[in-house]
Amino acid sequence: MTLLAQVALDERERIAGLYFLPSTEKEYVPPSYVDQNRFTEKEIVFGTPGWELPGTLTIPREKGPFPVLLLVHGSGPNDRDETIMGNKPFKDLAWGLATQGIAVFRYDKRTYTHGTKLSMSPELLQLTVEEEVIADALSTLQLLRKQPEIDGEQIFLLGHSLGGYLAPEIARRDGKLRGIILYAAPARALHQLIPEQMEYLFSLDGHPDTEELQKLEVARKAVEGINRRTFAATDIIPALGGYASYFYSLLDLNPTESARQLTLPILVIQGGRDYQVSKSDFTLWQEALANHPEVSFRCYPDLNHLLFPGIGPSTPKEYEQPNHVDEQLLKDIASWIKKHTVTAK
């Protein structure tokens, strides 16, 4: 694939960071279910001083105020569109749902906007999901309640992947959300998924070779060490990357228990071809929320982790091909939001 090399220099022109990022040179072509004449967009900058974040509020052209869906990213330094190899699943969701009369807010993640600053700061050693995701999501919810185009009592949150893992905690702490959508969301901490992902990828060309088996064993031992908290907080985790403090912050949360205690509507969405967050996690959500009064479960057999349609085993190469969030899935999300918006009025 085409990669962009990004080199960060400090004030003395020494190399402070080196990143290899997927190229986003491909032009975005909206999916067929989008009608750009039915919405407009407003740029908003928000956040704490020194850590401001830019975002986009997509607003239907009909008469408001509107229900709004806040999009919370998966792991990694994502932009507001959650751009992956030129594909933009969050842009698909924003434009598609706005076409359906639902406002959407998406924003650039802190680790995307301030990645260079973080790489040069001691704060990176102490970075947890609180600073990476939760604090900014809570700040965004307060921002949305002040927008004249938005019905402050009709705010929904969609968390994709890691964002879905954190969505119950964000909802618990906010206390005012109308509903949450767990979109390809793990029920287990991120590090616990990595050996399964590696095993799947190593098996795509047959059986894992000796080197791959060694890598898998290192990853499994790292996971065990995190679970037992045997690493110092500032240790970099072998095979997984990142500091132990970050992984410990994931262990400190219990998303299934938090979701069980919520009384708001919950929609759990799973792609049948998702190898990053498998059906095992979907089953864990089903078990945990079996007695929840307002939960819905939707599994789409042909969709991958981005909720893009495809055929056969999903692979990383698939993300390089131009694609869009599945149309039926988008319609189902719109219907679910409208159903629960009407209920509240």
Descriptive overview:
- By secondary structure, the chain is of the alpha/beta class.
- The chain has eleven helices and ten strands.
- The protein has helices at 89-99, 110-113, 115-119, 129-144, 162-174, 190-202, 210-228, 244-251, 255-261, 279-288, 327-344, and strands at residues 3-9, 15-22, 39-46, 53-60, 66-72, 103-107, 150-160, 179-183, 266-271, 295-300.
- The strands form two sheets. Strands 3-4-6-5-7-8-9-10 form an eight-stranded mixed sheet, with helices on both faces.
- A hairpin with a 5-residue loop joins strand 1 (3-9) and strand 2.
- It is globular, with a radius of gyration of 20 Å.
- The termini are far apart.
- The mean pLDDT is 92.
Q: Work out the count of structural domains.
A: 1
Give the termini separation: 49 Å
Oligomer state of the chains in this structure: single chain
Shape: globular
Strand order of the largest sheet: 3-4-6-5-7-8-9-10
Number of helices: 11
Query: Which CATH architecture?
Result: 3-Layer(aba) Sandwich
The major sheet is characterized as:
8 strands, mixed
Structural class: alpha/beta
Helix content: 25-40%
Question: Could you give the order of the helices and strands?
Answer: EEEEEHEHHHEHEHHHHEHEH
- Write down the CATH class: Alpha Beta
Q: Which fold name fills CATH's third level, the topology?
A: Rossmann fold
Strand content: 15-25%
CATH superfamily: Alpha/Beta hydrolase fold, catalytic domain
Computed CA radius of gyration, to the nearest angstrom = 20 Å
| Average pLDDT for all residues | 92
